[in-house]
């Protein structure tokens, strides 16, 4: 799928920077994008995106210093400068894209406020679907972040065609701060969505036996609401050369490093013993992807649609395995629409991606909404406890009215 990424705010900008760096590393042109921020320093921290594709907005209002964690100002700045944003997107070229993907951390100010505004306008102007990849904050980041994320997410679900959620708290390790985990979390995000959004693009190995084209991703996400993604990898069996296993293709290949490495602790893994039935291996991998850690932990049985994608060296891909996996997923989700296919890549690993679309229940979202409600009540109370109250009944007249 050819994707136009827009990174809004700091988290969104870093993610899009990584998506585009991944694309460049692969020598591919499937991804393009721009980044937008109200903070000049955050834009300067971007590594791979050319300066002309970094857009500073809100200069008259916040003078390049950012909006803090005020997402109402973030939304206002985006609305005021929407024409400048759309011109920057048009300049980068949109005629051949399949979808827009807006990335943002929903707990902050710029991306949290700006991304729903941008999604509304993109949908109004272009025919292509508009998806959001939204990062939700861990409760430890504070109630203001939860309040911002809850407001942003509940607006975003009405403005984007689908919001795929990544939960920072589900992915950081115990005892680790969210900030120190950013880099690792971003790699996890970009790996999953990189494989998913790349499906159907022609690789060095041509197209898969069961191609997932962009229309299948679009149809899976059609129901709207929020979605989550599961992922699992396993080592591929080394191909035999002269009766001996050939060296494992772990480096130098087209997609090497993209699927991830087995040592990564956060992933559920399967070891593939040689000679084992290929289709059973694929089913095992897909099960682990769906039952393991999802980008947003949720009750998968409430998903309305799903997409199963198996990426790996052609020798590991198996039509029957993908078909059986699709049936297994279908038995386990609420809806009956399960699409799927394979994607041949040059890698020493096989990966399964399961997109669970339009989820009916996710405890973390309910928790976020609850935290936000408490935070809002706290804000009202603190307004009532006005800082001028102590001067109100002193019977002392001000100098002038
Ligand atoms: P903005 O620049 O005002 O849009 O705010 P940020 O992008 O800094 O958004 C704040 C939220 O995004 C908080 O919940 C942060 O924890 C989260 N965040 C910031 N940077 C990153 C990052 O690099 N990765 C991840 N996963 N989350 C981030």
TrEMBL record:
<dbReference type="GO" id="GO:0005874">
    <property type="term" value="C:microtubule"/>
</dbReference>
<dbReference type="InterPro" id="IPR036525">
    <property type="entry name" value="Tubulin/FtsZ_GTPase_sf"/>
</dbReference>
<feature type="binding site">
    <location>
        <position position="168"/>
    </location>
    <ligand>
        <name>GTP</name>
    </ligand>
</feature>
<keyword id="KW-0547">Nucleotide-binding</keyword>
<dbReference type="GO" id="GO:0032153">
    <property type="term" value="C:cell division site"/>
</dbReference>
<dbReference type="GO" id="GO:0007017">
    <property type="term" value="P:microtubule-based process"/>
</dbReference>
<feature type="binding site">
    <location>
        <begin position="10"/>
        <end position="14"/>
    </location>
    <ligand>
        <name>GTP</name>
    </ligand>
</feature>
<dbReference type="GO" id="GO:0003924">
    <property type="term" value="F:GTPase activity"/>
</dbReference>
<comment type="similarity">
    <text>Belongs to the CetZ family.</text>
</comment>
<protein>
    <recommendedName>
        <fullName>Tubulin-like protein CetZ</fullName>
    </recommendedName>
</protein>
<dbReference type="InterPro" id="IPR017975">
    <property type="entry name" value="Tubulin_CS"/>
</dbReference>
<dbReference type="InterPro" id="IPR048737">
    <property type="entry name" value="CetZ_C"/>
</dbReference>
<dbReference type="InterPro" id="IPR045061">
    <property type="entry name" value="FtsZ/CetZ"/>
</dbReference>
<dbReference type="GO" id="GO:0008360">
    <property type="term" value="P:regulation of cell shape"/>
</dbReference>
<dbReference type="Pfam" id="PF21011">
    <property type="entry name" value="CetZ_C"/>
</dbReference>
<dbReference type="GO" id="GO:0051301">
    <property type="term" value="P:cell division"/>
</dbReference>
<dbReference type="Pfam" id="PF00091">
    <property type="entry name" value="Tubulin"/>
</dbReference>
<dbReference type="InterPro" id="IPR032907">
    <property type="entry name" value="CetZ"/>
</dbReference>
<keyword id="KW-0133">Cell shape</keyword>
<feature type="domain" description="Tubulin/FtsZ GTPase">
    <location>
        <begin position="2"/>
        <end position="194"/>
    </location>
</feature>
<keyword id="KW-0342">GTP-binding</keyword>
<feature type="binding site">
    <location>
        <position position="186"/>
    </location>
    <ligand>
        <name>GTP</name>
    </ligand>
</feature>
<keyword id="KW-0963">Cytoplasm</keyword>
<comment type="function">
    <text>Involved in cell shape control.</text>
</comment>
<dbReference type="GO" id="GO:0005737">
    <property type="term" value="C:cytoplasm"/>
</dbReference>
<feature type="binding site">
    <location>
        <position position="141"/>
    </location>
    <ligand>
        <name>GTP</name>
    </ligand>
</feature>
<dbReference type="GO" id="GO:0005525">
    <property type="term" value="F:GTP binding"/>
</dbReference>
<dbReference type="InterPro" id="IPR003008">
    <property type="entry name" value="Tubulin_FtsZ_GTPase"/>
</dbReference>
<dbReference type="InterPro" id="IPR037103">
    <property type="entry name" value="Tubulin/FtsZ-like_C"/>
</dbReference>
<feature type="binding site">
    <location>
        <begin position="109"/>
        <end position="111"/>
    </location>
    <ligand>
        <name>GTP</name>
    </ligand>
</feature>
